[in-house]
Each structure stands twice: as structure tokens, then as C-alpha cells.
Amino acid sequence: MSKKKVMLLTAMVAMLIFSVATSAFAASAYFDYTLGGKDKENYPFDPADPTAPTSYKADLDNYLLGVEIPINQFKVTAEYSKDKAKIDGASLKSNYYLLKGGYRLLQSDVFQLYGDLSYISMKWDTDDNEKYSPIMIGVDGKYSIAGNMFVSGNLDYAVSGKAKADGSPDTDTDYMAAKVKYTYLFTEKFGAAVGYDWSNRKIKATEGDYKYTDTGFTLGVTYNF
How, if at all, do strands 55-71 and 74-87 pair? Predict the structure, then answer.
């Protein structure tokens, strides 16, 4: 991990600890599970093996745990996710964690918009220990439909980070992720949510681009404390 990423990660962890200590009331924790998730993969044509497939589709299982802590004009988010893509009877497991800091750009009685800076670490259980740890920028917003109903979403784009694997050179990689979620609160503290997640990762290898697109509806619960 580069010095810049270490400094960013340290600063964001400090913000998270500070937020927990100073904002014991406005935080929320959430759990989301992907329903019918799909992982679509596209590979460059290999002239040495013309019959090799250039695309795959896999079923995707995913769960995500997160906590969000607003404090004044700032917001800190931490997430952990675990995935399993199933292709032709085989499975590939991966996990990621995310730390995000946001600054509120707009606010009204029913709407909030934040500008975000985040660090995400992804790792795959492959023989070559594939991993990817970009710094991302983006926006996330929340619109209140009623006192107990709201829609939230975010869009984030990687501005740095290379794909890494044992025995291979680091490779430039593009990554973008978006999600939208509808939440209904049964009480002031407890609610249920349904949403949709999308992400796209493109590894720019010498022989061509490797593209990975994950999509899926989510069902989850949230707790305010």
C-alpha cells in the first residue's frame, strides 16, 4: 500500500473514531443481501487459443454490513462485503472493505447531497492473490418521501489504483460503482430496505481489456441508534 493510501486510510479511521465518540445518536447500521445477483465477465480474444470463450456469466451471492455516522456537515461510512461468484459448478470468493468520508454540499427539508472521498480494498481468493485498492470520489444523496420513507443512492468513480496479482505487473484499472435503495422505517429505529447495486471494473492489460460487471437487487434491514 502506498504512503498516500496509508495516510488517507489513517485519516478516515480517525474520523470514524471521532464520529463515534461525538455523535452517539445519529448513526445507522445496515445489512444488505443480494437477490439474483449476476457477474458478467468479458475477456480479450486470445489468438493462441481461438476457441477460448471471451465471456462468462456467473450467479453472484453477496452480503454487506455497514455503518453510517453523520456529524455536523460530515458523514463517515464503513462497510464490509463478502461475495461468491458461481461459474459451471466452481466458485470464486472475494471480499472488500470500504471507508468513506463525505461533506454535505446541499441540504433542504427533504433532500441531502454529499461529496465523497473513499478508499476501498478488494481481494479475490485466486492462486495469484488478485487485489485492487482504489481511491474513489463521488456523490451520495438522500430524498425523504415521508417521515418514515426515503430513497438514497450513490455514484463513485476510482481516480487511482492498479490491479495487482502475484507474478504479473500492476495494471491500470477503471472502476465505477452505483447503488440506489428505498428504505421504510417501521419504527424510529428499525426499518427494511430494497435496492439495486451495479459496479463495473475494467483491467487494461496489454493483450486487451478485461471487464467485470456485477448487478443485483438487494434486500436488507437498517437500525438507527
Answer: antiparallel
Say which CATH architecture domain 3-224 belongs to: Beta Barrel (2.40)
Q: DSSP readout, 37-78? A: EEEEEE----TTSTTS-SEEEEEEEEEEEEEEEEETTEEEEE
What tens-digit pLDDT sequence spans the chain (225 residues)?
555 555 555 555 555 555 444 444 468 999 999 988 999 999 888 888 888 888 889 999 999 999 999 888 899 999 999 999 887 778 889 999 999 999 999 999 999 999 999 999 999 998 889 999 999 999 999 999 998 999 999 999 999 989 998 888 899 999 999 999 999 999 999 999 999 999 999 999 888 899 999 999 999 999 998
Structural domain boundaries of the chain?
Answer: 3-224
Q: What is the largest CA-CA distance in the chain?
A: 61
Classify residue 147 by burial, with Cβ atoms within 10 Å: 0-12, 13-18, 19+: exposed
Please state the pTM of the whole predicted model: 0.84
Distance CA 108, CA 175 (A): 31
Rg (CA), the chain: 19
Let me know: does 26 contact 69? Beta carbons within 8 Å: yes
